[in-house]
Amino acid sequence: MDHATPTPREAAKGNDGGEFQSPALERLVRALGRLPGLGRKSATRIALELVQGGGETAAELAESVTAAREQVRTCSRCGAITEDDPCRICCSDKRDSALLCVVASPVDILPFEKAGFFQGRYFVLGRLLSPLDGVRVDDLPFDRLDARIREHDVRELILALDSSVEGEATALYIQRMIEDLDLSLTRLATGIPVGGALAYTDEATLHRAFQFRRSF
Question: What domains appear along the chain, each with residue ranges and CATH number?
Answer without folding.
Answer: 8-71 (1.10.8.420), 94-188 (3.40.1360.10)
